[in-house]
Amino acid sequence: MKKFAxxxxxxxxxxxxxxxxxxxxxxxxxxxxxxxxxxxxxxxCLNKVKEIVEKESGGKIKMEIFYGGSLxxxxxxxxxxxxxxxxxxxxxxxxxxxxxxxxxxFTLPYIFPTAQDARKVFDSDxxxxxxxxxxxxxxTRPLHWLIGGYRYLTNSKHPIEKMEDMKGLKIxxxxxxxxxxxxxSFGIEPHPMAWSEVFNALQxxxxxxxxxxxxxxxxxxxxxxxxxxxxxxxxxxxxxLLVSEKWYxxxxxxxxxxxxxxxxxxxxxxxxxxxxxDGVAKQDCxxxxxxISTLQDEDKWQAAAKSIWPNFYDKVGGKDLVDKVVKVVEx
Length: 331
Ligand code: MLT
Prior knowledge:
Layout: H1 2-17, E1 28-33, H2 41-56, E2 61-66, H3 74-82, E3 88-90, H4 94-97, H5 115-122, H6 125-138, E4 140-150, E5 152-155, E6 172-173, H7 177-185, E7 191-192, H8 198-203, E8 209-212, H9 214-220, E9 228-231, E10 236-244, H10 245-249, H11 253-287, E11 291-294, H12 298-306, H13 309-316, H14 319-330
D-malate (MLT) binds next to strand 10.
């Protein structure tokens, strides 16, 4: 009896010191997938979530991460989440919009003048409300949002410094109506294509160019197939840390709280990593022979792209919602 009392007392001290969690976590395995490599910003975030949930659940929750599109492309991952075949994924926001129109509010062209503005929005209550709507629309719930650098434009043909330079180029965009409309406003007919097909399509000349942040250019070694890069600040790379809503709804409160904590910590770490790595990856691109250009007429690009906003107000949940996001950006 005395031994039991001592053990109980020791456990109490350990809990008070935070070395053992008093929370109730059922044993489970989380299957997570990304179409990107482990060294990518997706991998940085998912690995951190894994580290936190495994440690804090005392090993009761395990996480297995599938990289490089081994379970399919990003839209396939969304379908797997809906069916609870996998429980977690990260992907570009553009690939969620087909399933959750309200996610489109975060992909409006030129909505985020800086990455800091996106940080404010994704930590705000406005984003939390939008995440609830996305869960209802798509059966997948953003726990939080990753931020990469701006999606800069690359191509294999010639430098782009003015909008006229776009003429005749075959540019790939994510399969999203808003991305198509944005590039049409720049005067070209873009090519929608799943991410997993892009490298081969560039290599074979099916397309001339694409857009992604510097870190993704590095992950993909795009310098092997792309020579020219232009810094266009139209679309910041943003993407959800997404879970299966079917699965999430059955979790107990302790597990939901642990996931929320892990998501916030992992995403904030990813934000810092991306900010730091943007410059490092840019230098890698230059060292591998990519030629970087800046736009001489970005005001024109911005005006053209923003002119499509009214066509998307109803789809993303109304102008009032867009105004709410813009208000957080401007605070
Ligand atoms: C894309 O272009 O489809 C994405 O940016 C790839 C990614 O999710 O990193």
